[in-house]
Amino acid sequence: MADATRTHDVRDPAPFDRLTKVEPQAAQIFLNQPLFFPGLLQTRAYATAMISSVVGLELDSPELHDRVDARAQRAETLHARLQSDAPPHIWAAIDEGVVRRVVGGAAVWQEQLNHLVAMAKFDTVHLAIIPFDHGAHPGLGGSFEVHELPNGDASVFFEGAYADELIETDQDLARRHRGKVQRMVESGVDARELLATITAG
């Protein structure tokens, strides 16, 4: 049953709670996001601006603070793992529209771009931007994340406005979605190259 105090987020919390247990164990994470920067790669300020705008929460809303804290904790955990002796591999395909959309004002947007540049410097982070002239691509079908454990088992997480879903039992589904991200990363533009152009302009 949904918590009546959570007036904006009526989703069942179970899939996300399960994700927070799977994600820290993943050896490889595959991210597809055609609309905004993936949550794992967001700064706190960008996350605040994005969540408040999409969900319709005031900046002083306790619910907004809770949701931003949860996203920031995921990002901080990932950052710590990337600096460990056994860092996960991150594969992310991001549509060019995402990096050109100014969210939260120029300062917040610039900070987010700089953060992405810093993340791209990790050897195990593989970021690619799908340029406008690429045309239609598989990532436009919707956002998703694939979390692959060291033993090869993988889960697919779909985050939606009204419901989240974490599928852990369909390995063929996980392979297909993992392959989509890998192919997009291989055919996209290296994130550092395009980001350098955007930030310089």
Fold and architecture overview:
This protein is of the alpha/beta class. The chain contains 7 helices and 7 strands; from the N terminus they run H-E-H-H-E-H-H-E-E-E-E-H-E-H. It has helices at 14-22, 44-56, 62-82, 96-100, 106-119, 171-187, 191-200; strands at 28-33, 89-95, 125-130, 144-148, 154-158, 165-167, 189-190. Strands 6-5-4-1-2-3-7 form a 7-stranded mixed beta sheet, sandwiched between helices. Strand 5 (154-158) and strand 6 (165-167) form a beta hairpin. Helix 2 runs antiparallel to helix 3 (62-82) and helix 5 (106-119) packs antiparallel against helix 7. It is globular and about 45 Å long. It starts with 13 loop residues before the first helix and ends with a helix.
Q: How many E strands?
A: 7
N-to-C span: 49 Å
Mean pLDDT: 90
Strand order of the largest sheet: 6-5-4-1-2-3-7
Q: What class would the helix/strand composition place it in?
A: alpha/beta
Main beta-sheet strand count, sense and barrel state:
7 strands, mixed
How would the global form be characterised? globular
β-sheet strand percentage: 15-25%
Helix coverage percent? 40-55%
Order of helices and strands: HEHHEHHEEEEHEH
Radius of gyration: 16 Å
| Low confidence ranges | 1-5
**Helix count, DSSP H or I runs of 4 or more residues:** 7
